[in-house]
Amino acid sequence: MEKKRVKSIVGKYMFPTEGTSYMGGLENRPVIAKSEGRTVWDTDGKAYLDFQSGQMGAALGHQHPRMVKRITATMESLLHSSNTMLNVPRLRLHEKLGKILPRPLEKSVFLVSGSDSIEASIDLARKATGGLDIIGLHAGLHGSTSYVTRSVSFNWDRRKHAAVAPHTGSVLTPYCYRCPLGLKFPKCEIQCLTASLELADANFTAQPAGFISESVLSAGGIIVPPEGYFNRVKAECDKRGMELIMDEAQTGLGKTGKLFGFQHEPGLKPGIIAISKHFGGGLPISAVCTTADVAKRAVGRGYFATRSHATDPLLCAAGEESLDIVVEEDMPGKAAQIERWIKSAFRKMAKEFEWIGDIRGRGVLLGIELVADRQTKAPANAETQKIYDYALDKGLIFQIRGVRELKNVIRLVPPMTSTRAEVDQAMSILYDAFSGLKKKGSKRKATAGKKR
Ligand SMILES: Cc1ncc(COP(=O)(O)O)c(C=O)c1O
């Protein structure tokens, strides 16, 4: 499709998007016409390595051959079905998921989008505990439905909404690279949590119901809470009769190098987890998973969650196939290998390029934080944008992320099926991008944002 026609359709028919938002100005970016494996092609036939895995729905690679085969077969036999009757793919998916969930998690409810699963998780925590207040990390993101999930997506500007949901509030993110309290782990003894909960207790207006978090805060700039953090959170939840909800949209099903991201915290047993993104191997299906005990308490107070398409055989069959692929093709192992390749490449680059302030993340969910000065940690927002522009021009796609006004983290989310050659190609493009910054001597004149 010609660029002129793209602009004309966007200008005339597409609902406008604020230019500064991450989905603003789409008409100036490549228009995707085709995808396969780790590559997407634009309308000019230019190929790009997709190191954002689509919108994270292609973490198995685009059009994984097993997904295509299963989806095609199901479409021809049983596409849609009522949720007032059971269907075979749905039953098989409950069983398959139930068998791989770490105990005591066992039961599942299917929905369509990630936001759906978070709304349903919050409702589940409320019904199970009889409480109302929900707290989440201030750099977290949990969805885009206009009321509940955006209200707990503190990394998006809550001021953009006409109204936020009552009984929602944020607590400090344990962002150790930029500790909000200026302390150092482990000497800090996780004071950010202690102080946050003291404040939260003072703010609760009802019995608190839940604490929601990603195990790696993705949109917030790939922030990995320190070891022991979530077990402390769980203990504090238990004291208050709250449920711990782990949002595994981005961290679930292999991407962090384990089946679920929360399993990196030894012994952690959340009462509720939500999965989505590549759960459908490219199709939209999500799930809320919980224990028999939480489910029983919630149903006793009238809990129920569904959508017209939530238990479609097509989506459930896709879910079952993606779980089989994750387990049988050892996606967690592949993700862990990719993490080693990428981190090692960036550790080498960090010796040469002072811009690289921090290298972090797990599996295929990785972040490189760029700073103008390693001492002051002044964020290098403009330089991060230059790296992005260069990489896009050379055929590598990723996203820029960070906490609120920080836009200085290169977020790399390659599909778990990425090969060594593809990773090397991406690293070589990024090396050249950093070399370009250096040559222009832009280090000294870095147009950095304010120090935090
Ligand atoms: C951690 C997390 N939770 C929930 C969501 C919402 O998922 P969806 O866009 O499918 O509604 C997102 C979306 O990016 C996410 O990153």
Total beta strand runs: 15
Strand content: 15-25%
Low-confidence stretches: 440-452
The biggest sheet amounts to: 7 strands, mixed
| Structural class by sheet pairing and helices | alpha/beta
The distinct bound ligands, ions and cofactors come out as: pyridoxal-5'-phosphate
Q: What is the molecular shape?
A: globular
CA-CA gap between termini: 44 Å
CATH architectural designation of the largest domain = 3-Layer(aba) Sandwich
CA radius of gyration is: 22 Å
Short description:
The protein is an alpha/beta fold.
Please give a structural write-up.
With 452 residues, this protein is α/β, with parallel strands linked by helices. It folds into two domains: 31-63 and 330-439, Aspartate Aminotransferase, domain 1 (Alpha-Beta Complex), CATH 3.90.1150; 65-328, 3-Layer(aba) Sandwich (Aspartate Aminotransferase, domain 2). The protein is 36% helix and 16% strand. It has twelve helices and 15 strands. The chain has helices at 3-13, 65-77, 88-100, 114-129, 148-151, 191-203, 229-240, 292-300, 313-328, 331-352, 381-394, 420-439, and strands at 32-36, 39-42, 47-50, 105-111, 133-137, 168-171, 208-213, 243-247, 272-275, 286-291, 356-362, 365-370, 396-397, 399-401, 409-412. The strands form three sheets. The chain has a seven-stranded mixed sheet, sandwiched between helices. Strands 1-2-3-13 form a four-stranded mixed sheet. Helix 11 packs across helix 12. The longest helix has 22 residues, at 331-352. The radius of gyration is 22 Å and the shape is globular. The termini are far apart. Residues 440-452 have low confidence and may be disordered. It binds pyridoxal-5'-phosphate. Pyridoxal-5'-phosphate binds at residues 113-115, 118, 141-144, 214, 218-219, 247, 249-250, 276.
